[in-house]
Amino acid sequence: MGFKRYVEIGRVALINYGKDYGKLVVIVDVVDQNRALVDSPDMVRSQINFKRLTLTDIKIEINRTPKKKTLIEAMEKADVKGKWENSSWGRKLIVKQRRAALTDFDRFKLMLAKIKRGGLIRQELAKLKKETAA
Amino acid sequence: FPFPLTYIARLLRIHISERKREEEAESNQNSFAAMAPRKTPVVSRNPQLIRGVGKYSRSKMYHKRGLWAIKAKNGGVFPKHDPKPKAAATPVKPSKFYPADDIKMPLPNKRKAKPTKLRASITPGTVLILLAGRFKGKRVVFLKQLTSGLLLVTGPFKVNGVPLRRVNQAYVIGTSTKVDISGTNVDKFDDKYFAKAAEKKNKKGEGEFFEADKERRRASCHKTRRMTRRLSMQHCLNRLRQCQI
Question: Taking every annotated instance into account, which residue ranges of this chain make up the domain Large ribosomal subunit protein eL14 (chain A) (predicted)?
Answer without folding.
Answer: 45-117
